[in-house]
Structures are given as structure tokens and as C-alpha cells.
User: Fold these one by one.
Assistant:
Number 1:
Amino acid sequence: MSGLVLLLAALPAAAEIRVAATTANMGMLVETVGGEAVEVTVMAPNDRDPHYLEARPSMMAALRNADMVVAVGAELEIGWLPAAIDGANNGTVQPGQSGYFELARHIELIKDEGVADRARGDVHPVGNPHAYMNPENLAQAGRALAERFASLDEGNAETFRANAEAFAAQVAEKMDAWRQAMGDPLPVLSYHGDVQYLAQALNIPLVGTIEPLPGVPPTASHLSGLVRDLKGGEGVVVARVYQPDKPSRFMAQQLGWPVHLLPSDVNPGEGADAYLELIGRWVAAMTHKDA
């Protein structure tokens, strides 16, 4: 019996908080702040656009067993997360409960100056949800997430807070380095509005989107108008790897600009270093400088 007791004492403690993260970037934030006190399941594959997924049994299973769900919010996951939560039959992770956390509720969203309307195909009616492209937003949300974890696991509260502050310091160091190396960045044409937060944070000029509205495929007339307006200047075209590449390559060819197709999420299980390296690739693409 004593040998069994010693063996059990030597085993690592079970994770205190089980988290279902909607995307790999949210999973990274959960692991960065929660450390060994959390167990994370990422629900959305990082090579698919989270705007257009459907609820799957695997998502419902992750939510059914979760103490928390951590989402991007701002309706990024509107097409599948509510249905997955309903199918999970877990009241703890319902919106408004302590087990429901959204990045979008802890940062200032960029909102369209016009009238956003999902009926027109606009997938950003409440504001741009791609706030995770600016690391400063994740650092800010990380502090709020630390407090939420602390409310669920008081014994690790100071560890959660220290982890969040360490991540915020790491982000600040990177952002300062990118700003100091910035110089005069060239204008950027993006396929979607996903780089808006990063561009705004680093004062990189955005000259338009290949989509006429978020989620609306480009028309020939829209592309012709962009070519007419941008021809003769310098710039760069950027898009995510899972977005249609033909319009981006067409615009790059017509304008004589380089085109960069990049992922926007880390791989599941990767940490803060991988996330900042990924954002650095976007910075380098948009500024023609090494990350």
C-alpha cells in the first residue's frame, strides 16, 4: 500500500481547468496564461476559415467536458459555436456564464464606418473580429483570462497573473522592435480585413480589400476599380493561405506588387514564441523587412 501511495504522489496533478478553445490562437493564449493548470482542446482546424465551419460532434464533445470555452467572439464563430454549445448540453459554457470567455469583449473592436449588414453578405456586422492579429490585443485579453482562471482555481491565481504579465512583456518587446525597424512601410492591399488590427497598431497604410465586403467574393468591376486606383504605385498584396488565391495573384500581377499568402493561426499546441514568430512573418511581408 505504501508503494502505491508513493507512486500516486509522484504522478503529475490533473489539470484543474478543462478548456475548449475555438481556434489555435485562442488555444495558445489559454496555454500561455494557464500553464500546467489547464487542459486545452482546439475545436477549429487552423487551415480552415473559422467564419464558415459547421458544428461537428467533436466540437460538442469538447464543450460537453469543458469547464470553459474561450472564443474570439464578435460573431467570428457564429456559424457553428452556438450550435455546438447547444449540442453539448453544458450550461457552464453558455454565453453569460463564468465558463464563457470572448477575446472580443476585452478589447476595442474596429467597426465599419458604414452600415454593416449580414444580409448583404457582410460577415463583420458587429465589428472586425480578427483582433488576434495584433498581439497587444491578446496581451490585454490575457490579463482578463487570468482573472477568469483565478476565479475557477484560486490556488493558482498568482501563477495565472504572472503568466499573463510575462506574455504582455514579451508582446511589448516584440512590438517595440517592429516599430523601431518600421521605416516607411509600403501600402498594403489585403484580401480580407484580417490585417486591419496589425496594420493600425504599426501605422501600416491599408489601401483596400480584394473583397468588396467581408465575406463577399470580388467582382470583375471591383478588381478593375482597384487596379485603376492603385496602378503605378508601390505596395504589397497579402492574404491568408485558405483564402482564394487567384484574385490576390491577379491583383499582384496587374499592379506589379509582391504577393504573400500566410497562415493566421499557429498550429495547435504551439506557444507564444510560435505566435509572435507568425505575426512577425506578416510584419515582414507588409514592410519588406525581416521579422
Number 2:
Amino acid sequence: MLSQREGREAPWFNTGVVDWARIRDSRFDVDRVPALLAQLERRDDADAWRELGWRLVLEDDLVSPAGFAALPHLVHLAPRSAHARALAGRILERAAAQHGCDDLLADCAGAITKFGETLDRHLRSRPADYLVSYRALLAVAQEYHWANALEGFTDDIYELECPHCAAGMKIAVGRFGCYSQVWDGNEEQRRDLRPAVAEALTGTGRWMHQIAVRDGQQALADGIAHLFGAAQCPVCASVFNIADEYTHANRPAACIDRVPSSAQKTGAHASPSHPAGAVGAGPYAAPGTKPSRQGP
């Protein structure tokens, strides 16, 4: 537990709200996480960050209750700590899982909004941890499937089924090519992807692409254009939208919207922060649209 003196020095860390005596970490301890947070507030320590990480984020995409309780503290440290940004992002990437901590997550709504603002400013500086912070921003926007899937497009692989013939295929986007691929025994069949034209992007795809372009991340922008473009099935030759099919299969719709998003009131097509033809023109607001599935 934080001492009264430490609590006064860190008023943003409200120990009256967070009852650490009842919040366990992944090792079922209740005192180690607040001690580590207090230590990291005083000084950066790689070993302390490493221990905190495995106490807050479990294997198999799960988060301990202490992960959500610690989130406001991590957001406080995020402007000056890559470790804090990465760990807060890892927690939010798993927010849609069946963690049983919806009450703790709801209490973090203000901190999550602040984290989005911090990340948006940080990305503009083109930092070394750009991809990690970009993925964290996707998690803030509740685009959990993209936050967990994007790897920077050096050699990204997405598995999905053709919406017309149900053939299982891989979508490759990276330095080795951009194509749909199906194997029939030892025979490979592939078709080149058809990237979306930037002006034709809408909703989440447009928002993601505009941020990458704004920040000079050309490889990321090109990858997003392919990901939100079209693929041709090597088996039946039908054409479909890649992002729609991947979202339909992977977005955790049953677990979504646990934390209200301001942009769900305005929509991603013309939200205050992403109006038509512009990006970053106002206070941060994450998009909240869900692509519709194409095909039968």
C-alpha cells in the first residue's frame, strides 16, 4: 500500500478509490503492484517494469484485476515512459476478453480518454516506439482486433475464409508481396491484392490511414491501404473486402463498448477530431464504427 505521504505526493493516484487490499495481481498478491508503481513513479527501473508487466498481464491474452486498477497510474506515466505506454496498451488490447473486471474497466474511462490524447500527441513526434503506440491507440479506439493483429507490415499474415466459397486462405501484406494464397496439396494458388485508393477509404480504415500518412509512416499507410482493399479468392475468383471479412471474423462484438467512446456519438466518418478531409483538427476522439460484412 502507498503511504499517506506518497499518496499526497501523487494525488492523481487515488488510494481512496483503489482498494488495493482487495485487488489481486496474477500471482494473487495485493501489495506488490502498488509498491512497484510507487517505485516507478520515483525512478525508471527495467527490472521493476518487467515484474510489473507479468503481474498485470497474464498469458493467453488475459489481464489481472490489478491491470485495470493500475491503468490510471500508467497513463500518468505515459507521456514520459515508453514502458508505461507499452504496458497500458497491452492491457487495453485485452480489454474485450472475459476478464470479469468490467467495473474496474468502467472506472478507467477518463484515464483511457487521456491516454488516447497522450498517444495522439506522441505519434506526431514520429517516435521510436511508433508501432507500439499506434497499436495502443487502436485499443483505445476499441479496435481490438486490429490492435492485436498489426505487426508493421514487414510480413503480416491474416487468415480468413472466402465469403462466397468458404475456402480458407491467407492474406499476405509485406515485403515479400501482397496477395491472397490458397494451398491445394503441394500446389500454391495466389492472386495479387487490390489496395484501396486513399480517397475511397471510409470509417476506421480512413482514420488509421490518415494517422499513418500524417506521421510520415509510409510503409504503415501502404499496408493499411492493402488491408482495407480487396482480395480475389484463388479458388472461386470472387472479390471481397479484406478488412470487412477479417473484422467480421475477429472483432469481439459481444464484448465491445464496455468503455463509452466519445466518437460513437459522432461516428468515424466526420468526428470532431477526424472531419472530412482532415485529421487531428480537434480534441482526440476514437472512431466507433463497425464495418459491415460483404457477400452472402
Number 3:
Amino acid sequence: MTLDVTFLGTGTSTGVPMIACPCAVCHSTDARDKRLRSSILVETPSSSIVIDTTPDFRTQMLRIGLTTLHAVVFTHPHKDHIAGLDDVRAFNFFMQAPMHVYANAMTEETLKREFGYAFADKRYPGVPEIILHTIDDRPFIVRELTFIPIQVWHYKMPVYGFRIGDFTYITDANRIEEAEREKIRGSKVLVLNALRRESHISHFTLTEAIALADELGVEQAYFTHISHQLGLHAEVSRELPPGRALAYDGLRLTV
């Protein structure tokens, strides 16, 4: 099945520009250097699904003019990936339906703590209406799409990436075990985090991300979850080998 993928955000947890930063990247006039927190929209002719609701979720939805959203799938419970969940209530109102949310047990626990009012036995009017679906390492179906979870490591935290057909999306990782790498092989498009050039405790560097895409034999890789420390989009892009590119906010792919 053909997928349309839109990059809603491609920045790390601080976003780019970073508050109070005087660097050249944060003051760039290139729109590709303006990065909201990392998230994607996956669409088919009959379904719209977001992976992660960042602190910028409302802005991202308004920026692309989305009017229909059927589900949210979460990778992990860090704040920069869940903080925008409250704003699904706008879709509740206009679609007259609850939002289906897919998350593992660890992420569910955080969602219930951070958005307790949405899961309370007695809820006041206007809070988000959410139906939680617990996922684990087994494939699961959202609408007509099969998601294959890929467990990666974000330092010591297990995080889910997802393969949907020929498309694989992985963010917040610095290690992927061999059995999980096998789930990625054969993907036509891989999206992978590449925080910066220097080593980091919980994220792939640009060099590491390129090497992993090469090892897996992926035809086209896009790098996301980018920090201002990586450099200017235009300059970094000129250094990349064929089939390897920086993603940017608003980039659309058909896979």
C-alpha cells in the first residue's frame, strides 16, 4: 500500500532554533533550519495517523491544515514526544469521535500520570477523549496499516521504531540489536535519528546513522531529530553521500 509521509518536525528536544542560542544555525534564514520537535504524519487515502504528539503538535496540525486524524502511535514517553496529546481534543470535537492511541505499557503509565484528567473516572467536559491500545513487540494493526515494532535503545530506555510496509521510522536511538536490525532490512526508506557530529550518550551521530543505513542496505535514508549542533542544513547536505539526506519540516514522501 502506498504511504504518504509528512515530516511534522525534525528537531531534537529543544527544537531549532534553540531558545537564547546565538549560533549561526539558530539564526539561519533557511526554512530548513527551523525544526519543530520530531514527529511524522502517515497517510493513506482513508487514514491519517501521527507518530508522537510533540510540544509543537498544535502548531504542526495548523501548519499543514489537517482536519482528520484517526490515531496516534507513540514511540516512547519522553516529554518531547508526548506533550501535545491534549490537543487531540480538537479532533474529538470536529470528528465527533474519540482518539485511538497506541502505546506500550511504560508510555501508557506516563500518559496517565501527565494527562490524568483525560483518564479519570469522573472527567470534566472538554477533556480529550482517548481510547488506549496497549502495544508490545508484536505487530499490530491501525486502521488498514500493519505496524511492526522495532525495539531500539535510547541509552538504557527501550524505544519503539516502526516499520510500515517498505517504510521504517526510528527516532531516539543509539543502539539497535541485530535481531531488531533484521526487521529493518529490505526497507526502501529508513528515517533515523542523527543528532549531531559529536558522540552522544543516547543518540546516533550523523556518521553512525550513515553507517547503519549503509550496513542495512537501505536505498534511501533520511535523518531526523537534529540538533543545532549538527550544522546548517545546506552545508551538511552537500557532504552526504547519494541516497542519504537530512529531513526537514514539511518534507513529504510517497513510499
